[in-house]
Specification:
Blueprint: H1 20-70, H2 80-83, H3 104-108, E1 110-111, E2 114-120, E3 129-135, E4 145-149, E5 154-157, E6 165-166
Antiparallel strand pairs: 1-2, 2-3, 3-4, 4-5, 5-6
């Protein structure tokens, strides 16, 4: 006689792969690591943008000095675009397209999350200017603003702080934090 066995008595074989619980645990671990890492990436990006802003301020200041030496009748440039190519081929520079800022994004006033602007003294020839660099999105693209004048000193403007401080390269980040 043959024995009849029911399905409940048969040994169960486990299907290959992962269970839903195992997959959920892995996803939760990945999300936890991501939640810890993302703020560090944002901080690193802001510090990189701030360092780029300070470097761009130095480049603009150098271009302003070269512009005033090249065009003494005009003095300092009244806007950033005057120091760029301004659509020309740069074979014969003019006061409106001096070709001193070869970085078109910097000549347009925007670079690495910062917006740059020049405030002229509106004299002819211009004998001074104020250069400003502000984050396009405060707390996202940068934590602080920078300003400089024709004297060459770059100042840091930290939101919520009283006054300004002079930029130093040993601060560990453009805003000294």
């Amino acid at each position: 006689m043959s024995e009849v066995t029911s399905q409940s008595e048969m040994p169960r074989t486990r299907a290959a792969g992962f269970s839903l619980v195992e997959l959920l645990v892995v996803v939760m671990v990945i999300l936890g690591i991501t939640a810890i890492a993302i703020p560090s990436f944002v901080q690193a990006r802001m510090k990189a943008n701030e360092a780029s802003a300070v470097s761009s301020m130095h480049v603009i200041q150098t271009a302003e000095f070269m512009y005033s030496e090249s065009y003494p009748d005009h003095g300092y440039a009244k806007k950033l675009g005057d120091m760029g190519a301004n659509g020309s081929d740069c074979k014969s520079p003019t006061p409106d397209s001096a070709c001193l800022l070869m970085d078109d994004s910097l000549a347009s006033g925007y670079k690495s999350g910062y917006a740059f602007s020049i405030v002229s003294d509106n004299q002819t020839p211009s004998i001074s200017y104020t250069l400003n660099g502000t984050p396009e999105a405060g707390g996202v693209s940068g934590r602080c603003s920078f300003s400089a004048s024709s004297g060459g000193q770059i100042n840091i403007i930290v939101p919520g702080a009283t006054g300004t401080s002079r930029f130093t390269a040993s601060g560990g980040g453009g805003c000294g934090q």
